[in-house]
Design a protein that fits this description.
This protein is of the alpha/beta class. About 30% of the residues lie in helices and about 35% in strands. Strand 10 and strand 11 form a beta hairpin.
Length: about 220
């Protein structure tokens, strides 16, 4: 009953719950217009504009050929929600999230938890791909601290590790940055880091803000 009341009130004014994270600072779960979103101090983290950006990327992929997915940067799990509900994806998903508070919020507030075809790992994304022996048909990179992609995830070593974890004919979606300065130049700098076996499409100002790389290993 309390959840229904909050949902109704959210059409009149936002209803917000705040959480403290050692990694992301203050996190806010807000009911607005009948829908929950997860925000950091300066950016949408899950279920708002970010979800639309990642859905744009997913729409470019032939998900019927994708048997398993690695999600680096789970956030509140909005991309998992999109995969399961909007795209009806029933394959295996491994989601990696460094912030234990975010993992707890995803479960308690958004119903994103482990299941028979869904594994959630609390770990640093770079460390995970270095140590992982599994290969994936799709890797989604969505790694932010507030509005910034940490520099280590835009460098050669990380991209090379990711490349080795992608199956032949597999796909990559890389949410590269919000309001990225010199976006085309930055994209051209990053692309060679994955090696010669990829064909990439560049997308700028997705949903008015984000830069995105979508690639296939050929």
């Amino acid at each position: 009953m309390a959840i229904k009341i909050k949902k109704i009130l959210s059409y009149l004014w936002p209803v917000t719950k705040r959480f403290s994270s050692e990694i992301n600072g203050t996190l806010e779960v807000t009911y607005i217009n009948g829908k929950k979103v997860l925000d950091t101090a300066n950016a949408n983290y899950s279920y708002g504009s970010l979800q639309k950006i990642l859905e744009f990327g997913l729409a470019q992929i032939d998900l019927k050929s994708v048997k398993n997915i690695l999600l680096l940067g789970m956030g509140g799990g909005s991309v998992i929600g999109s995969l399961r509900k909007k795209f009806d994806y029933q394959g295996n998903i491994v989601a990696v999230e460094i912030d234990p508070e975010v993992i707890q919020i995803a479960a308690q507030e958004f119903g994103i938890a482990e299941s028979h075809n869904q594994r959630i790992v609390q770990d640093d994304a770079f460390q995970f791909v270095k140590e992982c022996n599994e290969r994936f048909h799709l890797i989604i990179i969505d790694l932010y601290i507030d509005t910034e992609v940490p520099a280590v995830f835009l460098e050669r070593e990380f991209c090379q590790e990711v490349s080795q974890r992608i199956e032949e004919r597999g796909f990559l979606i890389f949410n590269v940055g919000i309001g990225l300065k010199n976006s085309p130049e930055k994209m051209q700098e990053i692309i060679p880091f994955f090696g010669k076996g990829f064909h990439f499409q560049e997308y700028h100002r997705v949903n008015g803000a984000n830069s995105m790389l979508i690639g296939r290993k050929v």
